[in-house]
Specification:
Elements: E1 2-6, H1 10-21, E2 25-30, H2 33-42, E3 44-47, E4 52-55, E5 61-64, H3 68-74, E6 79-82, H4 89-95, H5 101-105, E7 108-112, H6 118-125, E8 130-136, E9 140-143, E10 146-149, E11 154-158, H7 165-170, H8 173-185, E12 189-192, H9 197-217, H10 228-248, H11 256-266, H12 273-279, H13 290-299, H14 305-318
Parallel strand pairs: 1-2, 1-6, 2-5, 3-10, 6-7, 7-8, 11-12
Antiparallel strand pairs: 3-4, 8-11, 9-10
Helix pairs in contact: 9-10, 9-11, 9-12, 9-14, 13-14
Bound molecules: pantoate.
The site of pantoate has 11 residues, from helix 9.
């Protein structure tokens, strides 16, 4: 089996590295040729609680994503794990513009997502591809060629109900089970869910509360709970989003407010992905996170003023030197 990992950030390297160690042929697709060159020169190390995995430079297949279509047209892979941020989905679509009709029909993409909107873009670009959503609580930190796995977490794969009817009908669920099995063999707690939208909405809500606030206050996740003023804004964000979910008839298990606080405690020392983007002057995913809540609220004529305010504050930060 050939798995193409598009996006060699910490998550992409973690999945790709472990899949490769389990015997899968993995091709890494990086944003620049310098990054591909570095991987091939340095190899990579995955550090887990109980072991270290080393992949030698000569064992790495890494290419700039601009070559993806050419290589794929010659030698198609079995699955693409799309681990890029929402902000790079358009680049991926552009990079694959020269895929042949045949290649497009055989594309199977598992799309890792933090917010919403990926699926809609991919469906518009690849009407015949099989698209499945991937939601994970895996976390990893990358320093050069070293990837440190945060802990053992869960990955869910499934076809979203937000998929167009055409996409949902062509996806062969058996192939998703095969991918899940391959992931399990590589050491991931991976299962197929026929209710993938629930974890998608759950993650969206958690991110919509934690991410913008940590990015504005520049604090690790756990510190959100250290002041009553912070907790009160978190609560407003949670209540506004839950109101939208109620109108949409999205039902999530358990008390979401408790769960959000639980994530803050469980990831207390983490730098949220949005804070990391702000600190590195990268475009954030606010558009697909709080932006999605705002768009869904509009559909139901609901007001989400705290999300709107934070959305604009984060967008305002981005224009200062962020592409
Ligand atoms: O985006 C993130 O950083 C994570 O999803 C979360 C849950 C906020 C933890 O850092």
């Amino acid at each position: 089996m050939i798995i193409d990992v598009v996006g060699a950030g910490s998550l992409g390297l973690l999945y790709g590295g472990k899949l490769q160690t389990s015997g899968i042929s993995v091709r890494f697709w990086t944003r620049t040729s310098v990054q591909a060159g570095q991987l091939k020169q340095e190899g990579m190390t995955i550090m887990e609680k109980d072991r270290e995995i080393h992949i030698r430079p000569d064992e790495i297949q890494a290419y700039p994503a601009s070559q993806l279509a050419n290589v794929w047209n010659e030698k198609p892979g079995d699955w693409i794990l799309l681990t890029v941020k929402q902000t790079h989905i358009d680049d991926f679509i552009e990079q694959t513009a020269t895929l042949t009709v045949e290649s497009r029909q055989s594309l199977k993409i598992a799309c890792y997502q933090n917010g919403l909107g990926h699926l809609e873009k991919l469906q518009a670009a690849f009407s015949n591809a099989w698209l499945c959503s991937a939601i994970t609580t895996e976390g990893a930190k990358r320093t050069g060629g070293k990837v440190c796995r945060a802990g053992y977490a869960e990955t869910l794969l499934g076809v979203s109900k937000r998929s167009t009817k055409a996409n949902a009908e062509i996806v062969d669920e058996q192939q998703i089970f095969t991918l899940a099995k391959v992931m399990q063999q590589a050491g991931f707690d991976c299962t197929v869910s026929n209710e993938i939208d629930k974890p998608i909405y759950r993650k969206l809500l958690i991110n919509a509360v934690i991410n913008p606030l940590t990015a504005i206050w520049r604090i690790p996740n756990g510190e959100l709970l250290h002041k009553k003023e912070r907790i009160s804004i978190m609560r407003q964000l949670c209540d506004e989003a839950m109101n939208v979910y109620k109108a949409m008839n999205v039902q999530l298990e358990g008390d979401m407010w408790d769960q959000i606080q639980g994530v803050c405690r469980g990831t207390a020392s983490n730098t949220s992905s949005m804070l990391a983007d702000v600190l590195h002057k990268r475009t954030t995913e606010v558009e697909s996170i709080n932006g999605s809540i705002i768009r869904m609220a509009k559909e139901f004529n609901l007001k989400v003023p705290t999300h709107e305010m934070l959305f604009h504050l984060i967008q305002g930060m981005q224009s200062e030197g962020v592409s």
